[in-house]
Each structure stands twice: as C-alpha cells, then as structure tokens.
Amino acid sequence: MFSVNVNAKLGLFTFSLGALSLVAGLRGAYVPFVVALLGLLGLGLTYLWQRRVFHKLDVTRTLSQHTVHWGQTVEYRLEVTNRKFLPVFGLEIKDEIPTGVNFTEDGLVSKVRGLPRANFSDSMTVMWYERRRRAHTFTAAHRGQYEFGPGGLTSRDPFGLFPKETRDVLE
Fold it and tell me: Among 120, 134, 151, which Cα is nearest to 80's?
C-alpha cells in the first residue's frame, strides 16, 4: 500500500515536470523549460541507477572463529565490494542473528520480543570500484550452536525516491 502511494506521487511529479517543460517550451520560456528537462533527466537517471545498484555488488559475512567458548570474543566481519562505476549510496545491510550474541557496540542490534532472533543492521556508502570492510565484535552469552542469516540489503538513491531491497544475500 505504501509503495503505491509513493509511486503515485512520483508519477504525478514526473507528469508535472513534463507538462511544465511542454508549456514552457511552447511559450518560449527557456529557463523553466531547461529546468524542467533537467529535472526529468535527473529522475530518469536516478531510476536507471537504482535498477543496476546490486549488479556487480558482492557482500560477504565471515566470523573470526567457528567454535567459541562461553564468554569468548568473536569478530563479525562484513565485506562489501562494488565492482562497477556506479556508487552505492545508503546501503543498509540487515542480518538475522541469534539472541545469545551480544555485540560490544550499541545500536547495531534490535531485539524482537518473544522471538529467538534479533536483527543486526549496519549502513555504509560504497563508491565506485571500492571495497569496504567492517569488523564488529561480540561475545557468546551461552553455550550452543549459533546460526546467522539470512541477511538482506536495502539501497536508497541519492534523492531517496527509488529504494531497492534484496533478500537472502547473506546465507
């Protein structure tokens, strides 16, 4: 329901810019004509940008250890590699983690009451042909097997008009 409302507003905005450019062009008002055409061009490029945002983008999650004793510190590593010319703005990495994992940094994990899982979230911007690495540490709260994932990605264009989401990237 929310995306239909946003798409309707975006369509109305695009139609308004198109009508403004047509009327301004027919009346000989060149400055509004050029401004409206640049706005339409910007919308089009932003839309095409977001269609290719996850193309040639690699995201991996690794742990420093696979077996952990109670209370031991483990490094949770994220690596994002952008192998294309287009930068990725507002990339949010989401991962499901078990509730027995306590990260040392605040604000990374949001716990869901009544569920045995929590949501990990980290965000970054990755420029063209860049590799970004982040490392976060956590401790195991109790003995047992911990299962991570699945995780997903969300990207927002520079104007925030066309968010794109993919799931099951981190398995």
Answer: 134
Listed in sequence order, the residues at least 6 apart from 147 whose beta carbon sits closer than 8 Å to its beta carbon are: 98
Phi-psi region of 96 (alpha: psi -120 to 50; beta: other; left: phi over 0): beta
Q: How far is CA 72 from CA 36, 63, 66, 86, 143, in A?
A: 59, 13, 12, 40, 11
pLDDT above 60 (res 6): no
**pLDDT tens-digit readout, 92-107:** 999 998 888 888 888 8
Is residue 152's pLDDT more than 50? yes
Q: Rounded to 5, what percent of the chain is helix, strand, coil? A: 30, 40, 35
> Sheet harboring 164-170: ordered strands across?
109-111, 117-126, 88-98, 151-155, 164-170
The residue behind tokens 């400055």 is 31
**Which residue do the tokens 């139609």 mark?**
15
| Neighbour-count burial of 121, counting CB atoms closer than 10 A to its CB (0-12 exposed, 13-18 middle, 19+ buried) | middle
Q: Give the whole-angstrom CA distance, residue 41 versus residue 32.
A: 14
User: Average of pLDDT values for 60-74?
Assistant: 85
Give 135's strand partners. 77
